[in-house]
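Standup notes
- HV: blocked on the assembly model, inputs below
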Amino acid sequence: MANTYWKSLEARDRHPGRVPDNEAEHVQDADREPSRRDFLRLAGFSAAAIGTSCSRAPVKHAVPLVVQPEGFVPGATASYATTCQGCAAGCGLLVTSRDGRPTKVEGLPEHPLSAGGTCALAQASLAGLYDNRRFRRPSIEGRDATWAEADAQLTGRFDAIRKAGGAVRVLTPTVHSPTLRQEIEGFLATFADGVHVEYDALSASAALDAHLVTHGLRALPRYRFDRADVVAGLDADFLGTWVAPVEYASAYARRRAVGSGHAPMWHAQVESRVTITGGKADRRIAVAPDEIPALVFDLLAAIEGRGTAGGDVAMLAERLLAARGRALVIAGSQDLDTQIRCNRINAALGAYGATLDLDRPSYQRRGDDRAVRRLLDEAAAGQVAALVVWRANPFFDLPDASALARVPLLVSLAERPDETTAAAHAICPDHHPFESWGDSGPVAGLLGTCQPLVRPLGETRGVIETLAAWRGRPAAAHDLVRERWRAGVWPRQQEGTDFERFWSGSVQRGFITLDAASAPAPASSAPSRVPSAPARESAAALPAPSVERPRPEPGALTLVLYNKTSMPGGEHAWNPLLQELPDPVSKVVWDNYAAVSPAIAARQGLATGDLVRVETEGGALTLPVLVQPGQHERTVAVALGYGGLVTERFRDLGRHWFRSRPTVGEQGRVGVNAAPLLRWREGRLEREVAGVRLVRANGRRELACTQEYHSLAVPAHLVPAGTPPRPIVQEISRDALMRPDGAAHGPSHEMADLWPEDHPATGHRWGMAIDLDACTGCGACVVACQVENNVPVVGLDEVRRNREMHWLRIDRYYTEDDDGLHMAHQPMLCQHCGHAPCETVCPTLATVHSAEGLNQQVYNRCVGTRYCANNCPFKARRFNWFAYPHGEGTETLGLNPGVTVRTRGVMEKCTMCVHRIQEGKIAAKSAGTRVGDGDIRTACQQSCPTRAITFGDLNDPSSAVARLSHDRRGYVLLEELNVQPSVTYLKIVRQGAPTSGETGAAEGSGHHG
Amino acid sequence: MTGRLVTILLVTAIALTGSLLVARARSVHLPGNHQGYEPVQPIAYSHRLHAGDLQVPCLYCHSNAERGRYAGVPPASVCMNCHRFVTAPLGAILAEDEAAAREKRPRRAIVSAELRKLYDALALDVALRPDPARTPQPIAWTRVHNLPDFVYFDHRPHVAAGVTCQTCHGPVETMERVRQVGDLSMGWCVNCHRDAARDGIGGRAVQPSIDCSTCHY
């Protein structure tokens, strides 16, 4: 029996198995009746608007270039390879540039780590380039300065420190760029006491230290999900936030794919809060955060054959041992003992050298919490003479960072104002990554290049150049990177003898791979007087591992501080695209909240939106509650990265409509900063705080959640007699799928048809297939669609009124069975129905069918009756209730000139990237060829790390989409309505108990990602 | 009597107004239709001379029409392919040659007033050498053919299908100053797409689409 899926606890309890069928498309609040005054105000405004609306057609100019560079075609797009710097994962990007300005970020298909996928963060990174509120020039003590003045002043200060022998610290997140490391080390080498301190807001410090203890190397191994048959994730959200989610999700999906030729991966996730990783797992085990150390202890004992574990631990151990050499255990804990035990488990399972690659380690996390703690102590003791901060915001996301304010010279290289620049004495703003040259080395044996895509928009300067200037060797970043490659990379490659060709080839490709044996760690790649902080450490300095079993405290509530997948940290909180991207689990936007389990909510009488005080020894926060199904009872989860200074920019975002609510909270910021509740323990930042209390506070804050509406259902009276309605999310067991006679489809319905077959698509017929088994719900496609199609950000109040504009949303469903809670993520977009209900009700023919099977929306015909949206069974249409803002100043430069910017009163929806279809067809026609399968890729398809979305021509029998639409897993939504959607969904595959044939299958060790 | 006079006056006025309206009716357009638009350009460039008399192919200057969405106005550097050598009308140069021979003096460089604007844009001095004191400034031509923002037109498929430039732009090779000939309305586009689907272009069958999303997205 297939599982029943539900979207919310209310839906499950009130309407078991189905959703109300009288749900309106656009909900109007009952208390939102306009007053007489409102009416007069609007009437007056309308009259004024009519009076001023008519004017002459403006004279337009065509301004050609004076000299047009060869190969440059005005209005045409070109793509340039570069490396993403949104986090330290080092994914490859292809940035689309038009007329000299980048407008879209895509994945680099050939990249060995990301394999063409991106995350939402990368998709949203262009907003940072065109951000109006970036620093435009350096400033000293709050006064604008030129670079010459800033350099003169700061070099003077640094010279004085050199003479006095003062300590200088450079604080950055993980840096794996060889050139930047060289410059940082070179700058610090000019001081008697210079140390580079790396810290990550989402630190993996304990995992790094554990490898120092067990393997003598402070690095993370490369996690090879593409070689793993059994994966156990222990509170490590590796598909969402942990280290390199795009790389992991891509390999994970490939390994789990049906028909990939090897045994299916079995994945168990042990976690306290609910993550998309847990939602994808075959078996999800909810435990309290403080039970995980004990569980790892027991698991190690069971794997090493001592101890008498039972229950889940025994099951896990048995599964892992059965897949010795093909098993992988990942712990996200910040407890050193737990991480050491995890390493021992992996060693006992033979994972090192198989699913864990330490010969080619990862440098995607290098941060050392103990070095940060030491920096804070030194600063508090007045021992630090100067601190240079780049891309870090310690005043926001470190507890007790106030000690840093005592540093006599604090220099920030930030791109935009934040808490640290507010305290800084000098601000020397860095370029956006798309304005500067650079490189990256995320894993051993792989080097990426970063190239500028646009001339710097302000008078900023790249960090490499700034540090080079301060060490007395000013040079252009391009030259520094090139020289670094000539000296450090060129001798190690085997591609040829011409450096120029090697260099330009590397830049063009975006990365090069080197023989791992010749690949030293970036830290040691250049001989340097100044070893970086981690290298100074030896395992001896770490506390000896404990041999006692950790004891959970039964009954105590534990606070888990985490980073959201949709808004991964405070350094991205300025980005409206990420703030309005629904969290993949809760679907809440523009807020953080205290997620509690339904049991606690019931016990304390709390409902979603009620304010509570989360009280810890280190302080208290007042937050709205979110009741989260599946969360462990003893867990309260609060997202970090909210409540920062950068979110004050959203004060005026959204419509100032009557009784509207501002996007920011009462403090004028989005959400509440939970970082002060982080705790230092043994020199590591502990993200779990035991012994918290939940106290009900007065008032409510209604959360803007995009999931409680847009429900899909067949109205009861339309369900064909005698058959139950088909579920929206369908699943199939692997056994049923493998059976040759396995009926993928249930009994067919008697289909009533209201429409004649009068529009045969004889040429192309565009369609899509979406693999629900591959989709992790990460949200990259949502942002990709938004950026590609100029979809506006509307703000909290509009989302609360169900008016978010995303053309592509991801519906999240829960289900529960013996294996715990599962989640299904269903990307939902216009289904381009063959018999589209929207088309028949449009009075102005603004939505009509194309000869190629697309459901077209013609903006300039639309008068905004909204009949189509009311008649859309998929609730895929979006209405422009206002002329939503598209940014101002430089921000409008980021719009896609290939897609109309819609105005107020117009309906819009997914076009299946018809502008890309047109471009593909025109390119083929100009070249005298036919459009091939895969030539045209939609924005959502391109961005997907797991390749869950396939687009193509259904009339081409050899196309991937035509094959998938006839796949045994394929089904269409609301089949009873017979609207003939062009989008086929592929069922989720559920693994039952392992059969001997599956886990016993030999695995080719030569499989590479 | 006065009543009669008023009647006569009124009838005359109505007749006069009517005849004026009829005379002007041809130039009255619906909003957005700029048929007949013939703006003065910053340089009095003559298509009649270049495309007509000298028979320079359209795609020599508007080469982007084959490669990009926009046919585009050529960059000033393209003009210099010829105007590096041709600095004034032939007559003026011959006259100067004659005058120099007659007056037994070295001939002076003759630069026409219109071409002087081109050289100024490129920051060239009298001898057509780059003038380091000035920076080149692009020429801001006035666009004649303007489509509304909700239409996406691409030159490439039309050029590839063999549609001549004159089909849409009219006999540009006869125009001293470029004038908008077609009304650039949707009906005008769609009629041509329908005709081409029926008759083909130059004897070749083509499949021009009349889907909305061919141009509107």
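- HV (later): unblocked. Chain B has ten helices and one strand. The mean pLDDT of chain B is 89.
- Next: hand off to the docking folks.
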